[in-house]
Input
Amino acid sequence: MSDSQNNSVAFVATEVIPQSPPPARETGVVKWLRENLFSSVTNGVLTVVALYLIYLVLAATLPWIFNGIWTTSSLSECREVLQGKTGACFSVLTERWHQLIYGFKYPADAYWRPNLAFVLMLVAIAPVLFFDLPRKLLLFTAVYPFIAFWLIWGGTILAPLVVFVGFVAAAVVFQKFGRSSFAVGFFGGIAVALVVWTVGGALIPDGASDNALLPAVPSRDLGGFMLNLMLGVTCVSLSIPLGIALALGRQSDMPLIKGICVVFIEFIRGVPLITLLFVASVMLAYFFPPESTVDLFLRVVIMITMFSAAYIAEVIRGGLAALPKGQYEAADSLGLDYPQAMRLIILPQALKISIPGIVNVAVGLFKDTTLVSVISMFDLVGMIRGPILASTEWNGVYWELFGFAALLFFVVCYGISQYSQWLERKLHKGH
Amino acid sequence: MKKSVVFGALTVAGLAAGAAAAGTLDDVKARGKLNCGVTTGLVGFAAPDANGEWGGFDVGICRAVAAAVLGDPKAVEFVPTTGKTRFTALASGEIDMLARNTTWTFSRDVDLKFTFVGVNYYDGQGFMVPKELGVSSAKELDGATVCIQTGTTTELNLADFFRSNNISYEPVPVETNAESQQQYLSGACDVYTTDASGLAATRATFEDPAAHILLPEIISKEPLGPLVRHGDDNWGDVVRWSLNALITAEELGVTSANIGEMAAGTNNPEVNRLLGTEGTLGEMLGLDADWAKKAIMAGGNYAELFEGNIGESTPIGLARGLNAQWTDGGLIYSPPFR
Output
């Protein structure tokens, strides 16, 4: 048998043929190119056209960037150095760097103060953004706004201290009475805080800011990208709690609360932000005597916060509406009262659904802070449009300045967007 | 009831504002600082430099008034205003005076209740075209596309000019001077029109200024000057005569360089009255006797301010033209100091 087997077949391979590499057109770069760029005639043509367009853009911008001048002191000097070649005049960024970041009136020897406040902000914001960090860090987050206020505005430390004590007193009262009756705790807390602020405010001696450890800087002297960041961070962090409250209020069964929330949201959403800013800067000046106006920065913060809170409220209302009714009923059947049900069952789920919407509003709000340049506050765009482009040295430099502003905003907004995607992945429980 | 409370509060606030505004001069002296409204930035007229110090032709007026009233040209709080916020800032008392290349018109003076105290720059609307267009007069601009800033008097002047000359044009509306510079350079419009000083300043920043010409026609009157609120004539006088002191100083040859020896006493009684060595002009205004001397020392006389900020030696390169002294054929003219 074995013989016949050997003879009946002319050839039998006795060893395994070694694996040969796949054909060149089915592997590596070639395969990728063929499948992704040249899979059909149309796609091939489109690829070539796209490559040509990219070449055109790069051919125009790269020499411009790499020939850039960084060290001259005016646009005309830039042009002398370049001798008609293409090249950017980045010197405006180096020469006006401090103005772009801090505005033109913030005292130069105090730049470390906003810098320190910025670094501390990263520390304070970390436990809010990343849940794995020790919860004790939240204590620093609670103190941070007062430290930042003192660092940036300077003046007497008593003012932020009194405000802080007022908040602490309100929190204590709320802890003590809020358990038994929410209303007593809530309004009692507000009353106590007001008393502390009035008494404390009266106790601060006149001129306490004159010889303070950190010299006082008025709000009008703030500017540059610092102002955008301050407005963005303050307004986002204030408008999220306010937005949650408005969203819950809009769903409330109590007609008065519901009515107030609906009117507020609909009114604010129906008015352009720039109108609110004009009201803040121009109209309010008519209602106050010249010496006792509310600080312009505060007015703008209030307006932007109200504006974004109305939008965030609607986003969160969407999240609340997306929850199945069974969740509410389940909370009720467990015997939870309203605050507990909201805190433990409803809001964690609703907020998770609302994350993309909230981030969308936050990014939009951050970019909207540039609108303050129309009410003559010198944020980054205000600095560029006003003082820098109006100086005899730099009149006529556009691409470099606005490109720089776009870059700064892109970095921050892209960071926010990446964080929100990370958060969504982390909170995704895989059902 | 509630309404009346609100209105009551408003009335009180209004009265307080009125009371505070009753004596601007005293307010400024008590505050130790002059609140002066300027633009958020206009080349040569007002802009902060790399160190954040304001400089410019309009800024010079603010500094002169501060020096006259407070003795210190640095005692000024510059309040930057936009075209939209400038009048409310002045009317609400946020600023004491406005020196922001503002055109003196009937309605602003009468209807908005401001007092223009004088003219520090006579401007007028002009046209700029690329040289290669081959145009030498605005009347040849039939069918041209024109870049024009919206919401300004220039827009109306333009329509009037083209209509009265029976020629047509196509407007390209733009928002700011910076934007129109880009539009004009990129060829989106054939002609750019705005105040002649602005055109000159804009052209100075071009890579090749010689490739663009300003047409000879000036189609409007734009007298620019500082202004104050109605109702405080004493303060209006202070600002008016501070400006006039600068103008008279040029006429009499008093400069910031020779003012020291002039102030020691001269044979010219008008110089002596101006500088306070004769007469009681300062006392009449409620100021020190040497108020005008301090105002002139702040930034020099009118000619020095002009040449230092917008004159022919600067990149902006404006000729004196209408803004020469009346003795040189211009319109700059101060009533006598006596």
